[in-house]
Amino acid sequence: MLKEKFHIEFVMGSATQASLWRMISQVDGLSEWFADEVTMNEEENVYTFFWGKSDNQAEILGSKPQQSIRFRWLDEEEENIYFEFQLHKLELSNEIALQITDFAEPDEKGDAITLWETQIDKMKRRLGV
Known about the structure:
The protein is α+β, with helices and mostly antiparallel strands and about 130 residues long. The chain has a single domain, classed as Alpha-D-Glucose-1,6-Bisphosphate, Chain A, domain 4. It is built from three helices and seven strands; from the N terminus they run βααββββββα. Strands 1-7-6-5-4-3-2 form a seven-stranded antiparallel beta sheet. Strand 6 and strand 7 form a beta hairpin. The chain is globular. It starts with a strand and ends with a helix. It comes from bioreactor metagenome. This is START-like domain-containing protein.
C-alpha cells in the first residue's frame, strides 16, 4: 500500500527557536523526547535512535540551520519517503510553530498523528511550555 504524505503543526508557545532547533536536530535534544537514546555517526550523517531493545537508523537528507531538518529511515524502501521538522514564526502571534511532515499508510495515518502528538507533548513538557 502506498504511503501518504501528511503535515501537522504545533504552536510551541514560549519556546525559543534555538531551544527548538536543539530538540529537533541535536543528539541530546532528540533523546529528550523522540527516542530513549540517540547516537550519531558524523562522518555518514546517520543518527541511530533507540527505543527499549529496538533501534532504527536515519540519514540526514538536508538541513537549514534553525529552520528545518529532513531525515530518511535507512530501512525505508521508497526513496521519496522521509520525515521533516520545520520551524517558522507565526505572523499574528509571533510564536514559533513546529511543522512535521511524515508519511503513513492510509489506515495507519491516525495512529501516526497520535504518536506525533504524544511525542510533541513530551517535548513541550521538557521545554516547560
